[in-house]
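Hi R.,

As promised on Friday, here is the backbone we talked about, encoded as structure tokens. Could you run it through your design pipeline when you get a chance and send me back a sequence?
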């Protein structure tokens, strides 16, 4: 009995020491990406704003088991876009408005929308979510 217990303990310790956390991108039924959740792994969300009809780029990084929104870039100000200087640092670079910040999220929930061309860049690969899921689909980005 002691040998079985020690063997089971060894397997558990081996799994715990080699288990690499993952990042999942998809909906409840379909994954489009599962990648190793490396510390400081960049994640970029690109979309066309549904009201302004201009591009938005959100730059995040994976730190300490959560997603950190470090920068939002957009070409026109308006509804739903950050602007309050109390939330970060705001500046312009050519035609881009850039808002540097430090917002933390355990998980991300996104939705595909008409004409928004929702795309994620993760681990060097581009995932055109708007081509993989119907309009209005909730996309989940989470670590496990």
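Update: got your reply. Pasting your designed sequence below so it's all in one thread:
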């Amino acid at each position: 009995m002691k040998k079985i217990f020690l063997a089971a303990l060894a397997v558990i310790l081996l799994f715990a020491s080699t288990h690499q956390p993952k990042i999942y991108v998809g909906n409840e039924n379909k994954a489009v990406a599962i990648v190793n959740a490396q510390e400081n792994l960049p994640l970029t969300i690109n979309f066309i704003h549904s009201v302004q009809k201009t591009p938005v780029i959100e730059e995040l990084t994976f730190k300490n088991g959560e997603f950190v929104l470090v920068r939002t870039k957009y070409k026109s100000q308006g509804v739903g876009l950050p602007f309050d200087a109390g939330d970060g640092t705001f500046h312009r670079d050519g035609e881009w408005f850039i808002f540097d910040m430090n917002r933390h999220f355990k998980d991300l929930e996104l939705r595909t929308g008409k004409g928004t061309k929702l795309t994620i860049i993760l681990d060097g690969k581009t995932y055109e979510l708007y081509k993989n899921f119907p309009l209005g689909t909730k996309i989940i980005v989470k670590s496990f």
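One thing I noticed while checking it: DSSP finds two helices and eleven strands in the chain.

Thanks again,
M.
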